[in-house]
Amino acid sequence: MTLTAETDLQSFVLLRLGDRRFAVMANQIAELVAPSRIFRFPHRTSEVEGVILRRGRIVPVCDVAEKLIGKGLKSRRFYLIAQRHYGSQTEWVALPVTGDCELINAEMTLPSDTDAPHVSGWLSHAGDVIEVLNLAALTPGPSEIAPTLAPLPQQEARP
Amino acid sequence: MRPLSPTKSPAARTEQIILFRVSGQIFAVSSASVQEVRGIDSLSGAAKEMSHPALRKVKHFVRRGENSVYVVNAAMHFGLPPAPPALVFVLRRTRTALLIDGIEKMTSMSRLQALPLAYCHEERNWYRGLTALDQTVVPVIKPDGFLTPDELFLLDASLAQEADAETNRQADQDQHDSSIAQ
Asked: What is the tens place of the pLDDT at every residue in B148-173?
């Protein structure tokens, strides 16, 4: 392997949704956890199911299967907790997945103009061509957040 | 020489909250935001009916001095199944009274987490944030989030229109009465 090829390799986490696999850049992943109780309360953001409590943080659960495979998940094996960037802020979001996740090193091909906004690139791995997900396009959030106007990430307001 | 008193870590600041129920869902509100808690029966004498096609969650109002306080059905506001309300919260520094099912308990919260940014629609105006209590998560409502300035304007305009219509009706009646007397 040449030095050039080695430096092009990046780490990705492969996740499974039904029969399909997708990838997220490994540096965006916080952890993989077993499903826990979802707390639900009224809201109008249909992509968010509710929240889970994780390490003292309240983390929204976003089921991205509907957008990616055309149907919601009936069962889930883990929550992949990923970092979602909102402008200069970062928050955790929990993505339900249906199978084991895998850490791989691969070279990413950049997306073309015709790819969907949620595709930030492509990987070739074990005979499959796998979409690398752009979480900012896939999970809900305010359309634009000016860095100076946005509240602090995971701010714990004290009364 | 007097021994040094043991140093105490500063007590965590807490906020008194009221946990209340609406259609089986638990919400929290700061106790400081609740001016009065009344039974629904005590409201029936003072409240007058009103209706606005765009605001079905408001069916009554109460006159308080110069202002009208609008009675908001919390279940309808949050899109929850209807449930018979039993109590009314008159919310401080707002023109809102809130119909709720009942009070769960009073407690305190030490941390209020901002609503995650993944929630990006109307709910951002409904909640101050979320708090974790006894391993559950409870949304903490924003007292001024039940009626927007535009909604208040609509309701005020609707009442003013009704008042004008009533004044005109009264003037017509008076004219009619005086013509009969002559």
From this structure: 999 999 999 998 888 777 777 777 77
Contact B84, B101 (CB under 8 A): yes
Q: What local confidence, expressed as pLDDT, does residue A157 receive?
A: 42
Name B141's bridge partners.
B127
Beta-carbon-side half-sphere exposure of residue A23 (alpha carbons within 13 Å) = 25
Cross-chain Cβ contact B113/A59 below 8 Å = no
- Find the farthest-apart pair of alpha carbons in chain A and give their distance in angstroms, rounded: 57
For chains A and B, CB pairs below 8 A equal 95
Report the SS3 class of residue B173: helix
**What per-residue confidence (pLDDT) applies to A143?**
74
Considering the domain A3-137 in this protein, what is its CATH number? Answer: 2.40.50.180
Tokens of B31: 């106790």
Q: Where are the domains of chain A?
A: 3-137
Asked whether the beta carbons of residue B137 and residue A93 sit closer than 8 angstroms, the reply is: no
Most confident of the ranges B6-10, B20-24, B178-182: B20-24
CATH architecture of B15-169: Beta Barrel (2.40)
Rg of chain B over Cα atoms, rounded to whole angstroms, equals 22
Query: Where in chain B are the domains?
Result: 15-169
State whether A159 and B30 contact (CB < 8 Å). Answer: yes
Q: How far is CA A61 from the centre of its chain?
A: 10
- Do A21 and A38 meet the contact criterion of CB atoms below 8 Å apart? no
Six token digits for residue A155: 């701010």
